[in-house]
Amino acid sequence: MNILSRLQQQKDFNPSEKQIAEQILLNPEKILTQSIQELALQTYTSTSSIVRLCRKIGLKGFKDFKMQLASQLHYQPHDVLLVDPDFPFSEDDTYTDITDKLKELSIHSINQTAQLFSDESLESSVKLITQAVHVGIFAYGDTAIPALNFQNKMMKIGHHILSSHIPGEDHHLANSFNESDCAILLSYSGESKNNYHIAKILKQRGVPLIVVTAYPNSHIGLLADVLLLTAVNESKNVKLSTFSSQLSMDYLLNVSG
């Protein structure tokens, strides 16, 4: 597993280490030109916290971290995203600029996400979905689009996925599930209040839960029986577009269903 994957999984990270990891993931290439002091200042942490994080993922220190990261970015040029996922377009862009940016963002998002899933997590999700009496998918806001895509594709091959598109009705749907069913919940940040409430209802009813998120240690991520991780490209809050997260979720749902 590469450095970026380890940072996203955030295994046994404390709050300071999570903050550092998320800052690095926003722009890995930029970190190569920063000093440890600059990164500490940017993340409101300390140089010692950065060193501990480096050692926690199996590296000697920040210098070794930058050398290994530079090597991985060199051999995996598709991992270096030159398009801002939050604001991918500008008013000066030509039609060619827009098509090129969308192509780069699409390729990058899928490549990054493909590095994060394991055969074990995919096998577990497929087993839960195929063996369940009923399967439901829960999403809110922009994540409803990949949820609808998945529901439509599964319907065409004879698998009916339950979902509610009426505000508030998803809570009633969640309350109708039990341990013989399966639920899929989509949340990029893993912190959506509506989805968190849904996840708690499902867990209380013993429903196996597949969570698709970019943040495994989020409130929703920690409730998952199976985690499917998307690439961390977009910010959690300030963004104009959700191209990257929707593409990543579409990809994960396609391979897990």
Tell me what you see in this structure.
There is one protein chain. By secondary structure, the protein is α/β, with parallel strands linked by helices. The chain has 12 helices and 5 strands. It has helices at residues 3-9, 15-26, 28-31, 36-43, 47-56, 62-75, 95-114, 119-131, 144-156, 169-175, 193-204, 243-256, and strands spanning 135-138, 161-162, 182-186, 209-213, 226-229. A 5-stranded parallel beta sheet has the order 2-1-3-4-5, sandwiched between helices. The longest helix has 20 residues, at 95-114. The radius of gyration is 19 Å and the shape is globular. The protein starts with a helix and ends with a helix.
According to DSSP, the number of beta strands is 5
Give the fraction of residues assigned to helices: 40-55%
**Lateral arrangement of strands in the main beta sheet:** 2-1-3-4-5
**Uncertain segments of ≥5 residues (pLDDT<50)?**
none
Number of helices: 12
Listing every helix as H and every strand as E from the N terminus to the C terminus, the arrangement reads: HHHHHHHHEHEHEHEEH
> Structural class of the helix and strand makeup?
alpha/beta
Q: Main sheet, how many strands, which sense, barrel?
A: 5 strands, parallel
* Quaternary assembly: single chain
Integer average pLDDT? 85
Q: In whole angstroms, how far apart are the ends?
A: 24 Å
Beta content comes to 5-15%
**Shape descriptor:** globular
What is the radius of gyration computed over CA atoms, rounded to a whole number of angstroms? 19 Å
Organism: Enterococcus eurekensis
Domain HTH rpiR-type: 1-76
Keywords: DNA-binding, Transcription, Transcription regulation
InterPro entries: Homeodomain-like_sf, HTH_RpiR, RpiR-like, RpiR-like_SIS, SIS_dom, SIS_dom_sf, WH-like_DNA-bd_sf
